[in-house]
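Worked example 4.2. Below are the chains of a multi-component assembly; read each line carefully before continuing.
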Amino acid sequence: MTKTETQFQMSGNIKNKTINVMLAGNPNCGKTTLFNQLTGSSQYVGNWPGVTVEKKSGRVRGKTGIDIKVVDLPGIYSLSPYTPEEIITRNCVLNDSPDVIINIIDASNIERNLYLTTQLAELAKPIVIALNMYDILEKNGDKIDVDLLEKQLDIPIVPISASKNIGIDKLIKKVIELNNKSNYINVKNIYSYEIDRTLNKIENELDINTCCRRWTAVKLFEGDSVTWERCNFTKEQKNRILAHLNQIQTLKNFDREMLIADERYKYICSITKNTVFRKHPADYITISDKIDNVIANRFFAIPFFLFLMLAVFTVTFGTPGTLLRNGAEYFINDILGSTIQKFLIAVGASYTAQSLVIDGMVAGVGSVISFLPQILLLFTLLSLLEDSGYMSRAAFIMDKPLRFIGLSGRAFVPMLMGFGCTVPAVLAARTLENQKDKRLTILITPFMSCSAKMPVYLLFISYFFADKGPLIIFAVYLLGIAVGVLTALFFKSTILKGENAPFVMELPPYRLPSPKSMSLHVWNRLKDFLVRAGTVLLGASVIIWFLQSFNFSIKMVSADESMLASIGKIISPVFSVCGFGDWRAAVSLLTGIAAKESIVSTLSVLYTDAGFASAFTPLSAFSFIVFVLLYTPCIAAVSAIYKEMGSTKWTLVSVFYQLFAAWLASALVFQIGTLIINLGMI
Amino acid sequence: MKTLDDLKIGETGTVARLGSSGALRRRIIDMGITPETSVKKLKTAPFGDPVILLVRGYRLSIRKSEAMKIFLKG
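Applying the procedure described above to all two chains together yields the following structure tokens:
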């Protein structure tokens, strides 16, 4: 190819081709924040390793005039194929073949972050390092000689601050520049003479078309079974490679996996030695350490954890939460409801139309929206724990107790998130390292009472347990946890036997939660809620209204003779033993499959105030609450479970197990409760 | 031979070799625990397990059972 042809092709590239950029880096180094800055989207960010669990893609906003597609990959420490995240990243690099890799690095933790860089550099792709949190590093009094580091690594570096949007434009410019130099390949030898020579010999054995030759050779050297299979060697090739490997083995003390890692780290140390300057010695006690000395202290950690949970609980369900709800209720019923009614009367709407809007829409959706402030409050508090970095401490503290039920401390994070919403909690379980651990966690997470179930409890409490509210709520949450533990023990000793999951976890420094990230969390939740209120809940309310207002010949009748009553009466007998055999209760549980808040809207549509108060006794109200706590989560959660279980069988196990557990527990509550009451009367 | 588990809180040791095997060993190597690395034991959890280590300037938590398989020099 002549020079002009090359130039022509390259300019063609610039105009038409999309630049595919891959964002790779360690967990919790600000990758998602950078992704959000680059693409203007609002992905979920937290302060614990492993927040991003699947790859997401977006396009670079702004007026670059060039189409850049960015893929945000899960955070990884290495390209070894041991965790799902590592496999996703590895396959993405090898199969999707990005044009440029952005390797984001946490400046304050540069040594370990560069370990991944040394692996990425062997993939024969253009790389740019985004040196993140550089501002924090400087504020701490540390210094990195960026120019020298760049020169020694032979990889371009752009210092950025993802959270403050500093250096992002420069980074984009660099990406475009690198893409135009597509023949730029920066495979650099980082190994000692003997190992380099062996790697070269292995490279010579590879098929001419093999991509990432150095990387493949290194993986073969390490004994990576996936790569060995992929290469499809003939017997002679295999024997020759093995001979090379045996030769090097006799020279060195360590096994080959350790040899490579050791040389990578040695290479890194040789570079950081004269480019990274720390104000304090390596074992300097940081503020994070001081905080940990108090709240992760051997004696104080557990009391503090309980105190924190109690505080979250008290704020959400105690006076602050209740005040918020009362305000919202007043607004919905007394202001919004009556205004709409006046308006309908004024415009002369028919009785059916008035009933549809007031009894159907306002009663259904409004009853749920009044709980929104309280749900958001719980969410804010949970995301505060998450953003601050406390979650990984909780995992650290809870590892030992969780091992008793066959889980590792890392399973604690999804479980805690489950109190907010089951969907992200189930997705978070993906970071768990083995399949058994993951399945067990997904099975018990729905028992952690999600915030959408809260309106149901609060509705029943306001009618039947006005004076014992906090006690009932506390009992319900505890019962959920207890059933989760029993479930884990049951499955652990039957179908999910196996070794205990490992526990190797980084503890990130504490961070002050940024208002931006916090509001992002809460906004995402609010949006999700409003979308559901406008679609599922509104739709369900209208359908319920229709089914309960008409009979099968579409004549307006009283609820007792309606279509809904006929449907409800078919399933309600199942619940007689639990104490709520009324068809209305059965129907509300059915709609709860769509969304848990639907239970409240359905009950509000179907019952009058007085009707509701007389339909339940305190005991049957409690057994109803127990059923709602434990039974199959909403459709959204079930589909998340299906996705993460990766198996129809396990999804069905989860759905029916929860249904059965709920029925059994609530029947037990009602029957034993009845017995106690009767005995008391004798 | 002395292991990481034998370190008292606040004590530092230098890694000689890793005794475990498989994926978990690889994970620990990837996290930067390689020969000649100096590791400081910062604290233990309320139930005595797991432990927090200071490795290469960051905080890493592993279990006692793994710490017992990391052999130290001297």
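Take a moment to check your reading of the output against the notes. Chain B has a mean pLDDT of 92. Chain B has one domain: 4-72.
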